[in-house]
Request: fold
Amino acid sequence: MVFSSLQLHPSLLPVLNELKFEQATPIQELAIPAILNGKDVMGIAPTGSGKTASYALPILTQLAKQPVSKTRNIPVLILVPTRELAIQVEEVFKLFAPALPNSPKIKAVYGGVSINPQMKSMMGVSVLIATPGRLIELLEKNALQLSSLKTLLLDEADKLLNQGFQEEMDQIRSYLPAKRQNCLFSATLNEKVEAITSLLLHDPLVLKVEQTENSVEQIKQTAFWVNEDRKGPLLRYLIKSRNMHQVLVFVGSTFKADAVVEKLRNNKLDAVAIHSKKSQDARTKSLRNFKEGKTRILVATDLISRGIDIEFLPYVINYELPRSPKDYIHRIGRTGRAEATGEAITFVMPEDEHHWKIIQKKTKKEQEHPAHIEHISTEDFDLKGY
Reply:
C-alpha cells in the first residue's frame, strides 16, 4: 500500500518520497489508520518492521490539526526503556516534524545527563520521548504536566515491563488523565505485556505482524562450536580473514564487553564498547561513529541493543549466547533489514549445548518458515597469531 492512501498529512508525503519510503510495511498499513481513528492499539511486530514510523506518522498528522503547545503540558508521551531508543525515536520524529506547517517541538529526555537543560526545554514540547526514571524526576520537579495528555505510547513494551520498571510505570500512571488514546508496541507478546494491556488499553485493536519468510531468509545464520579459550582468537580470525566491517558483537555483561574490546584493540582492530556504565555522551558518539562506518566493531549488551537501528548492518556476532530465544531473535534482527542480506554468527561452547538447543527449538516454533542454521566445528581452525 502506498503512503498517499493512508490519510497522512499531505506535507509528510514529499519527505517520505525523498527518503524512498515507497510502500508501507505491514505494521504501518495496519497501525496508521487505527491511530488516526483514535483507537487504542496494541501492535506486535518484529524488529526492523518499520514500527517507529507506524506511530510517528499518524501522531504527527494528528498534531498538525492542533495548535502548537505553548505550555509545559505535554500532549504526546512516548515511553521507551533505554536512552539509545529514546534518541532513535526522536530522530525519526525529527525527520518528519519540520515538514508540518506548525512544526511541533520534539524532545527526548533520559538519565545519565544533567537534568537542568531538560527541565528548561519542556516549554512548548508536543512530543516527549522519555525513559521512565527521568520522566518521574521531571514530574516531581514540576518541569512538565501530563493532565492534558492526549496520546500515551509505550515502545518496546516487552523490555519496559521486564527491566524492573513496574513500580515506575505505576507511578507514571498516577499522573495521567483518565481519557486519552493509548498505544503499545512490542516485538514480542508475553504475560507482562498482556497484563499491562488490561490496565492501559481500552478495547484495543490488536495488530500482529509475523516475521515473514523473506526477512528470515535474508539472514544467513551460522553457529561455530568453540571452546572458551579459543573464542577471542576465533572472533578476530573471522573479522580479519573475511575483512568484515560494521560488525555488531553481542556479549552478556559490561565487563565482558570491555574485555573483548581490549583484546580486539590489542590486535589492531578498531572496536568500541557500548553499555550502561559508559556516559551518555560516549554512548551517543560511539553509536554515531559505528552507524557512519567510522568504527569497525561495536561490542554491546542486550540492554543497549534496542537503540542500535542500522538499515544495512551486514554482521551480527553472538559472542555469548543470549538469555532467551526472544533475545536471540532480537539480536539477529539487527541485520537483514530493508531488503538487504545479513549474516548472524553465534559462538556455541560445549557447556552451552543444552541452552542453544532450547533457543533453536523455540525460535523455530515462533517462525512460520524457520531459517536453516549451519553448524561448523572449529577444531581444525588454525587460530595461531589471532
Observations:
- Residues 51-64 form the longest helix (14 residues).
